[in-house]
Amino acid sequence: MENNLPVNIREYQELAKKALSKMHYDYINGGAEDEHTLRDNIAAYGRILLRPRVLVDVSNIDMSTSLLGYNMPSPIIVAPTGSHKVATPEGEVATAKAAASCNSLMVLSFSSNCRIEEVASSCNAIRFYQLFVFKKRDVSSTLVRRAESNGFKAIVLTVDTPVFGRREADIRNKMVASPKPNLEGLISIDDLNTTGGSQIEKYARDTLDPSLSWKEVEWLKSITSLPILLKGIVTAEDARKAVEAGVAGVIVSNHGGRQLDYAPATISVLEEGCASVDAKGERGDKTFLSKKTF
């Protein structure tokens, strides 16, 4: 049996395609429009070559780093993704336990299928909370308060989704929005039944705020003492603005190619973003991530 275990991410991906429904596999695996950025996110790594240096003692290797003062054995963390119960009955609780077993940091998505409190109590680990700004500001502020009271150490504000990306596979498959228990009593998804298109796209259109601007960063700073990171930065100009806005950090991201197609591959703009932040603040070490870590 052990000989049949997958040996790389691609083989796990093939197993997932067999195990999941087409709708859910396409949702997890797909991107926006022509999926150019989705493909280039991976292809861009193939354009980066390593310059190996030899005759160096590698018997003891230290990959440890720190983020906002929290020590980690490696710079690999779990990015915010929602709807984990599509893949496993335990949902984000299973993901949190896996991250904790590796002493890795997890960023919990606002659209998780498990409650904030449930994930927080499942294991002892460092966690950040990912937030969207909703049209109803009290929804966002309530989620921030719950994250604070349950020991989350930072707020990760996603800033590249004022409107939902056009994900054509989801439209064709009539993607159904999964339960979002953290929004119960705040936003209802009961009235999202549609006769065509993606239900999750309609949910985003009805709830997310397209007027999102730098003013919302100031608003978020006014309601929490937790450090704030902005996720979705791909230009040096916006990285500098983020530093000037007083956030704790930026996450260079194009939303996995799921938002604006033909945006640059993340790795291709990482150096640009880091260099611009270097001029005004502190950054962590740049890290080479194999495409097989995705």
Written description of the protein model:
The protein contains 11 helices and 7 strands. It is of the alpha/beta class and 294 residues long. The strands form 2 sheets. The protein has a 5-stranded parallel β-sheet. The chain has a two-stranded antiparallel sheet with strand order 1-2. Helix 10 (236-244) packs across helix 11 (266-278). Mean pLDDT is 89; it is low at 281-294. Belongs to the FMN-dependent alpha-hydroxy acid dehydrogenase family. This is (S)-2-hydroxy-acid oxidase. Its EC number is 1.1.3.15. InterPro entries: Aldolase_TIM, Alpha-hydoxy_acid_DH_FMN, FMN-dep_DH, FMN_HAD, FMN_hydac_DH_AS.
Summarize the structure.
The chain has 294 residues and is α/β, with parallel strands linked by helices. 36% of the residues lie in helices and 10% in strands.
Furnish the topology, listing elements before pairings:
Elements: H1 9-19, H2 22-29, H3 36-46, E1 65-67, E2 70-72, H4 92-101, E3 106-108, H5 116-122, E4 127-131, H6 137-149, E5 155-158, H7 168-173, H8 199-207, H9 214-223, E6 228-233, H10 236-244, E7 249-252, H11 266-278
Parallel strand pairs: 3-4, 4-5, 5-6, 6-7
Antiparallel strand pairs: 1-2
Helix pairs in contact: 10-11
